Amino acid sequence: MLARSGIEGCAVRGIQMATLAKNAKTIESLKPGPKRQAFTIKGATGLRLVVHPSGRKVWYAVFTDAKRARRWIEIGPYSDQGWTLSKATDKAARIIGEKPSKADATLASTFGELFALWISEYAQAKLRTWKDEQARYDNHLASIAHVPIGKLERKDVRDIRDRVLASSGPIQSNRVVALFNRVMNWAVDEDRAKFNPASRLRKVGEENRRERTLSEIELKAIWQELSEELQVVPHVGGLNKADMDAAKYVRLALKLLIVTGQRRGEVIGIRRSEIDGDWWTIPGSRTKNGLPHRVPLTDTALAIIAQADVGEYLFPSTKTDNAIRPDAVTKQLARTCKRLGIEGVGPHDIRRTVGTTLRKLGVSVEDRSHVLNHVYGAKSKVTSWNYDAGEHDAEKRSALLIWEKWLAQLLW
To answer: Do 248 and 230 meet the contact criterion of CB atoms below 8 Å apart?
Structure first.
């Protein structure tokens, strides 16, 4: 990238950075990478452009405040009809010239600027799910990023709530409102906003606890459909190799999810380095409870893995250097179920089916918990894993062998 016209490379604190020429065409032609990238603009003091892997480009004004703290104030997303290079340069100059205090800057800033501060100063340090919250903001709340904090009204949030309800359902709608409240309540506590305009805003729907499990007929039909699709994909005309690989990896990931009962994110992110013989160790950084989790790999699981990619990720994305996206698995399962006439099934329902079936097959609640990495009591302490690692390997393998035998009788 650094060799491209209009971009100069420089090292800052050991991190490779880049400076863009002050040229609209150079900025327009920037392509996203696998990780978030930040650029300075030559001749535009304090102006930064952040390019997200999704392709979204956002302007920031960067300066050092009176307390010698480095401040990033979001200006807004790049657009040839919105925050152009010229407008962003002028806005950054005004912000830097004013050098607002920590409190005054936020009171006078937009919701987008406040959210950026919440992410950097609170969420990244406190929330393991901060990336999910960032995505939720990008998808639903970015539409009010330009609105000054003092001018936000209850109806603004209510309109977003209802729009998300129509497009994504009550659960996502409730999550978006909760995120807005979380940001604004934090701002009030930090004296960065005077009040939360959406305080006690009514939820639009109740989140019913899901009880959906797959029947034997449904599970068999889904497995057989995935197997047939894997045979058909290499012969479908009009698909290039990347598309065929992507289709293959998503379907293999779904089959591994069925065989192991692990969470969707843990399955799609599986790395070659996590596998040791017939054991798969999921690091704590990738598990919901933060604890490493050892999963025994049965013959069926190993056969699926043998069909996966030979690189570091077993199920790599064909568009980035990371694993396939979680929603790719969800959408593929939805398409498969639609063809089969099966309704209301998501990836987590497969995991629930594994747990429910193991119970019916006589596996104890403790052993099911070990298989599914549901921890409680002393085991819930991170330090205890160092002593308990491998302690329940035999029980987990026994349970998954019971599951594999039941599956084999159902499928073959």
So the answer is: yes
